[in-house]
Specification:
The structure holds two protein chains of two kinds. By secondary structure, chain A is mainly β. Chain A contains seven helices and 46 strands. In chain B, helix 3 runs antiparallel to helix 4 and helix 4 runs antiparallel to helix 5. Helices cover 52% and strands 17% of the residues of chain B. Chain B starts with a helix and ends with a helix. Chain B has one domain: Butyryl-CoA Dehydrogenase, subunit A, domain 3 (Up-down Bundle), CATH 1.20.140. Classes of the chains: A mainly beta, B alpha+beta. At the A-B interface, loops of A face helix 2 of B. The structure holds copper (II) ion.
């Protein structure tokens, strides 16, 4: 099958206000399977019962979640709820996880999750945690990879949108959070046109402790640009983080034209070790700022939300040597650091070239004060004193670059819809592979670390069109996997993804599998409303609050007959799953619940709040097919009128009801 | 003779018997270890999981607290070891052989007792069991492999049991060597 694959290109260029039609190289492609060769199927085949070699963690984009896939099969293994409600798992619906979605702006049931980032030790992914940013209401979440659940969410104050985040440092010292939108600092009722005077861009460093616990270490106040993406240095550049900027024109309207006028924007190079020195010297300003910090306790099976009220801010004028700007052509999008830490790739998204800076040259330029100018006390280094080289005419619209650890780099080109492989140092193009269609991020397992596993490359495509059976106007996003172990990239597989994966991370399964937990030991359960056995079950009234201590075990609830509840009560079902076996969750659903079901793992306690509104006898049941007698796993709760004198009682089987 | 006593005392360190249940949905199997004083599994939840499986067909819960043998068996082993040491002190072949015969007799009695418990669990089923399979026996084998509905049950001595078994030839050899040397 041969067809044209450039139909969306003129539209995009027109939108961007360019007339680059001369670039549109509309030649018939070699068919939409690319160079698919006969043995591709066996390369992605994982036999029934076998494990995949890698985990891939895909951001959910506008779904707000993270999905876990296996590679090379592409199979979907789990959706981890992070920033959005998930009725299936009761995330954000049960009493235990509601605090996870608290912010200074109240309960927020959704976010836009973009960039997952695995924890690292000495520059290598270590399989302990996965961090991911919430873009809309600025937050960072931490997922524990022993249980694949969200354990912590920290809100980022003084930010207008957390896009350049989390991009971890090489020993997981910090995850970073740069604001995509500059906003008035401090927030105030000012004219939008006063952008240049009143707006600022804030970069935040969030420290990561021994147990993964996050805290806002400090913030750095920068000029009002859009801080787009970032990567922390590694090896020789450890101690630095690089943030791309666009809209250095400082416009507030019709940015697609207005923010695309400067020939060069900047990469902001932050010396965070210097920042630590300034913090230690007390050269910060403590400013009021409201931010929520939500932590899930694995023993209590419950989250708490704490509101904080201040943050430490460093001002570059007070802190020489903290920040430098590196001019970089054409609104750079991704900024990627090669495995040695020497090369910093600026993916100028409105260009056909890639600019690569040298860390060594950057240090020399700083040493020699090779400054072009200064912006708000921040030196702008001379471009030619820092640049190492350029990959010329590589493609159109470069966005992101990953590395294979063998001296090669792979850059995604959105407009020309391709991955281009090039050589670090010589800057020559070695190979190119079409993507279907319009690739955004790309991912090689470990491809942004010091230690890539250069076997597969995943293209995360923005446009799906005709790749799968049509499902109406809305289509899933499509990922594609390439074999990059040889000289030529080889397309192996298309697979559908959830939401809109922006960035992704991959890691050898062997770094995670040995630490995965199978259930929660019941004797470690410290939930305040736990029932550690059927003898602990009871129903307690406190005014109009009724606490039901329920247990589940194959295949019954204890108790399963409850009477004495009244219209107007608030009934809390605290359900403890007594199972101590892998993969035996029980569900709990009660008719008319205005929230969701519960899905309780072995050894866990979860709470569903239920408002009985009418008299009657209401059934509840297990929603997870747990055993041969699952269908029998049901019970009744009797609801009496508000003025009824029927006492609380509960029972299981033939035994006398307990009062 | 000391080897025989030490082998016997291994029962305090290692389980006597091991029963593994295999089924399609239990690829790694569910393994129970019978010690002289307790019944354990390959994980803390194993006994609960076995009991959950058993209750569908109305088998009694395995409750180690309700099995008196697990309480007095350690004293029998200690007593037997003490007698072995006395035999060693007397150092006459006849005493060695006598001890050996006593150990064989007690082992046979113990295995028969194990069989009776298994028979009881396998046959004394609750009348109101949710799943009734006419003619099916749920009694696991004492020694060997047996299909119990969807499970393959595998039952063999474990390390402690093997060492206890070795005590018999060790004691016999002690007696034999003594007899030859006199
Ligand atoms: Cu159930």
């Amino acid at each position: 099958m041969t067809r044209l694959n450039c139909f969306q290109l003129p539209g995009i260029l027109w939108l961007a206000g360019f007339s680059l039609l001369a670039f549109t190289n509309c030649t018939p492609s070699g068919g939409t399977t690319g160079a698919l060769s006969g043995d591709a199927a066996s390369q992605v085949y994982v036999a029934p019962g076998e494990y995949d070699e890698f985990y891939a963690f895909m951001s959910g984009g506008f779904s707000g979640q993270v999905t876990v896939h296996g590679l090379p099969s592409g199979r979907l293994l789990k959706t981890i709820p992070v920033f959005s409600l998930d009725a299936e798992k009761a995330y954000g619906f049960n009493e235990e996880t509601k605090p996870m979605l608290q912010t200074s702006k109240g309960f927020i049931p959704w976010d836009d999750s973009h960039h997952p980032e695995l924890s690292q030790t000495k520059g290598s992914t270590d399989g302990r945690w996965l961090f991911i940013n919430g873009n809309n209401t600025p937050r960072i979440a931490r997922i524990d990879l022993t249980v694949f659940e969200t354990m912590e969410i920290i809100e980022i104050p003084n930010s207008g949108g957390n896009h350049s985040s989390p991009f971890i440092t090489e020993n997981s010292e910090y995850v970073v959070a740069g604001t995509r939108f500059s906003v008035p600092y401090p927030q105030a009722d000012v004219a939008i046109s006063s952008y240049k005077e009143n707006f600022k861009g804030m970069l935040t460093y969030v420290s990561v402790g021994e147990e993964g616990e996050m805290d806002i270490a400090f913030q750095i106040l920068l000029p009002a640009f859009d801080y787009d993406l970032a990567h922390s240095g590694k090896g020789k550049s450890h101690g630095w983080t690089f943030f791309t900027t666009y809209n250095t024109e400082q416009k507030t309207s019709l940015l697609e034209v207005a923010a695309s006028q400067n020939d060069k924007d900047y990469i902001a190079a932050i010396n965070w070790k210097k920042a630590e020195e300034y913090i230690a010297q007390g050269k910060f300003r403590e400013v009021p700022a409201k931010w929520a910090h939500n932590v899930y306790d694995e023993k209590k099976h419950s989250a708490t939300s704490t509101m904080n009220d201040k943050v430490k801010v460093l001002i570059p004028e007070d802190c020489p040597g903290l920040v430098y700007f590196i001019p970089t052509p054409k609104s750079p999008h991704g900024v990627d650091v090669d495995p040695t830490g020497e090369y910093i790739v600026g993916n100028g998204k409105l260009s056909s070239d890639l600019t690569v800076h040298s860390f060594t040259k950057m240090l020399a330029a700083i040493e020699n004060k090779a400054y072009e100018t200064e912006i708000s006390g921040i030196p702008v280094l001379k471009f030619e004193e820092v640049v190492a080289g350029a990959v010329k005419d590589a493609g159109l619209g470069p966005l992101h670059t990953e590395f294979d650890g063998r001296g090669n780099a792979y850059t995604s080109f959105f407009i020309s819809s391709e991955v281009v492989k090039w050589k670090i140092g010589t800057w020559e193009v070695l190979d190119r592979a079409q993507t279907f269609y319009s690739i955004g991020h790309l991912m090689i397992p470990g491809g942004d670390s010091a230690d890539p596993d250069g076997k597969y490359l995943i293209a995360l495509n923005k446009i799906t069109k005709d790749r799968y059976l049509p499902t109406g106007p809305e289509l899933c996003h499509s990922a594609q996997m390439y074999d990059i172990s040889g000289d030529k990239m080889k397309l192996l597989l298309d697979f559908p993804t959830m939401g809109e994966p922006h960035y992704a991370q991959g890691i050898a399964a062997s770094k995670i599998v040995p630490n995965v937990k199978k259930f929660y030991p019941i004797e470690e359960n410290e939930h305040p409303y736990r029932a550690l056995g059927e003898k602990d079950t009871k129903v307690v009234r406190e005014g109009t609050d009724v606490h039901v201590y329920l247990t589940t075990i194959r295949s019954h609830f204890s108790p399963d007959n409850i009477e004495g509840v009244k219209v107007g009560d608030k009934v809390y079902f605290h359900v403890t799953n007594l199972e101590q076996d892998w993969d035996v969750p029980h569900g709990f659903a009660v008719m008319g619940a205005n929230n969701s079901e519960l899905l309780i793992m072995g050894g866990q306690t979860e709470t569903l709040l239920w408002y009985p509104k009418e008299v009657g006898v209401i059934p509840f049941y297990c929603t997870d097919f747990c055993s041969a007698l699952h269908q029998e796993m049901q019970g009744y709760i009797r609801v009496s009128p508000a003025n009824s004198s029927i006492a609380l009682s509960w029972s299981l089987g033939e035994e006398e009801p307990v009062q | 003779m000391f080897l025989a006593v030490i082998s016997l005392l291994c029962l305090f360190l290692f389980p006597m018997w091991r029963i593994t249940l295999l089924a399609p949905q239990y690829p790694q199997g569910v393994t129970m270890y019978i010690h002289i004083n307790k019944i354990a599994g390959d994980s803390p939840g194993t006994l609960q999981n076995v009991n959950i499986l058993n209750h569908y067909v109305g088998m009694k819960f395995i409750e180690p607290e309700s099995i008196p043998e697990l309480k007095y068996f350690p004293y029998i082993i200690l007593g037997l070891s003490f007698l072995g040491l006395i035999a060693a002190a007397i150092n006459k072949s006849g005493f060695y052989f006598a001890w050996c015969v006593l150990l064989v007799a007690l082992s046979v009695a113990g295995i028969y007792d194990f069989y009776l418990w298994e028979y009881d669990y396998g046959h004394d089923l609750a009348a109101n069991a949710p799943i009734k399979i006419p003619g099916a026996s749920f009694q696991p084998p004492v020694f060997g492999v047996k299909q119990i509905i969807n499970f393959t049950a595998i039952s063999y001595p474990a390390l402690g049991g093997i060492f206890a078994g070795l005590a018999i030839p060790f004691a016999f050899m002690a007696g034999w060597i003594k007899q030859k040397s006199t």
